[in-house]
Amino acid sequence: MTIQIEGKRVSCSVAAVEAALRWLAVRKDGRPLRYLRYAIEDPASESAAALGCLVRPTVSMTTASPEVRALAVWGLMLDEIEQIGSTRELTHCNTLSAAFRLGGVGWGSTLDERFGQLRDLPGVFEIPPPTTTTPMHNAWSRVVSDKLSPCLAKNLEMLALDGEAWRSYVEIARASSLQPQASGWQTSSVNTQPVFLERQLVAVEMRRRTAYRRLTVRNVVACEDGVGGYRALALTGWTGSLAAIPVKGIFGCRVETWPGVQLGDSMVVDLRFPKPLRKGERHEFISLACDDDLDEERNWVNVDVDHHGIAARVVDGDGRVTGGLSVSITFDDCVPEACWWYAEQIEYERVVRPPAGDRHLLEIRRGVVEHTFLEPCRPRGEYGIAFRWPRA
Fold it and tell me: How many CA atoms lie within 13 A of 19 on its CB side?
C-alpha cells in the first residue's frame, strides 16, 4: 500500500501499521495519544520514527494543529476497535482495551501486567481463568495482525487524500476523552469527591519564592445527585509538610470552613454551590487561594485529583483551553533556573530536574511558564509544574 501526500509517495504497509501499533502497546509510561502528538510535533523523535505511518496521512488536514491531528488518528483507532467489538468478538476487544489502556481501569505499566489484569477477570477468556497470560498475548497477536492493522491501513490510504474526512474521527476522540469511563473514571471511594472536571484552569502569582495568589476555575459535572459543594485545598509546594493556604470563593461558590479531624490539621474548606447539583448537571465556579507568608519557599504548584478525574485537553480555534487541566505561573523578579511539568509522580520524583532536551522541561517566557496536560488526569493522581530556584 502506498499513500500519496503532497506530491510524495509515502509507503504505509499493513506491516508498518502493525509495527506502529505494537510499539504503542508496549509503552510503559503513558497513553497512545501522547505519543501520537509527539510524533507530529517532533519529526526527529523516537515516536515519529515508530509512528510515522499513522501520523503522516494527517498532513491532508492542512490547517490542523498537532493536537487535532493526533486526536484524528486516535479517533480512527477507537472507531476501528469499536467496530471489532460490535462483531461480538469480545475477547479481541478486551485485549485491545488492555493494550491501548481503554475504559475505566487503572491499567498496569507493561503489556503483560495489563494482560494479567484481564486474566484475573472471571470469564473474559476461559472458565476457570488461565494460569498465564499466554492466551491474551495470542489473542493480541491475532487481532492486531488480522483485523486492526489491515483496517487502519485501508482507512489511512483514503484519509490521506481527504482532510475533511478526518473530522468525524476528531470528534470521536474528543467525545471519548470527555466521557468519564474513557478517561480514568473509577469507582467512588470514601475520600473521592463525586464530581468529574471537564476543565480546570490554575493561575498562580508568585511573590519571591511563595505562591502568593492561586486563582482556580473549575467546570464540574456531578457524578451523583445532591452534590452541594467542593472540598478545596491549595497545595502549592514543599514546606517540610504539604501546607494548605486560605481559600476564598470568587464566583459560583461561597466558603464554609471547619477544623480538621486531628489537632494541628489544616482547616477544611468547602466551596458551597448556590444549589445542589443533580447527577450529570454542570457548574462553573472560581476560587482564590492566598498565602501571605512570603518566607515560605515553594518548589512546585500541584493539583491533587481527589475526585473522578479531569478531561483531556481541548483547545478552541483561538487557542483558548476549553477542556482539561492547564496550569500557569507568573514569577516576579525571582525567576527559577528551570521549570518542568510532572504527572503522577511521588514527591521525591517531581523535584528531580529532567535532563537537557527532555520534553517535560518548560520555557519561561517573560516571567511566565504554563502547561496544559494533553491526557486526562486520573483519580488519585497528582499533576503540576515543579521548579528549581537559583542557588545563593
Answer: 12
* Model pLDDT for residues 15-73, shown as the tens digit of each residue: 999 999 999 999 887 788 889 988 998 888 889 999 999 999 999 998 888 888 999 99
CA distance 106 to 137: 19
Segment 327-383, tens digit of pLDDT: 999 999 999 999 999 987 767 678 888 888 889 999 999 999 999 999 888 887 889
Q: Quick: pLDDT tens for 120-173.
A: 765 566 656 678 889 889 999 999 999 999 999 999 998 998 888 998 898 888
**Phi/psi of residue 231, nearest 5 degrees:** -80, 125
**Contacts (Cβ under 8 Å, ≥6 apart) of 138:** none
Contacts of residue 128, Cβ cutoff 8 Å, sequence gap at least 6: none
- Asked whether 336 and 364 are in contact (CB, 8 A), the reply is yes
Which residues contact residue 283 at a Cβ distance below 8 angstroms, ignoring those fewer than 6 apart?
Answer: 219, 220, 222, 252, 273, 277
- Per DSSP, the residues of 235-270 read --SBSSSB----EEEEES-EEEEE--SSTTPPPEEE
* Residue 360 Cα to chain centre, angstroms: 14
**How many Cβ atoms sit within 10 Å of the Cβ of residue 77?**
26
Could you identify the residue written with the cell 507568573?
330
Q: Write the Ramachandran bin of 171: left for phi over 0, alpha for psi from -120 to 50, otherwise beta.
A: alpha
Question: In the structure grid, which three cell numbers stand for residue 53, read together?
Answer: 505511518
* Model confidence, pTM: 0.54
Closest CA to 152 of 312, 1, 375, 374: 1
Give per-residue pLDDT as tens, 280-318.
999 999 999 887 776 778 889 999 888 988 998 998 888
User: For the chain, what is the largest distance between any 2 Cα atoms, rounded to a whole number of angstroms?
Assistant: 71
- Residue 114: what are its φ and ψ, rounded to 5°? -70, -40
R_g of the chain, CA atoms, integer Å: 23
Q: How many CA atoms lie within 13 A of 93 on its CB side?
A: 14
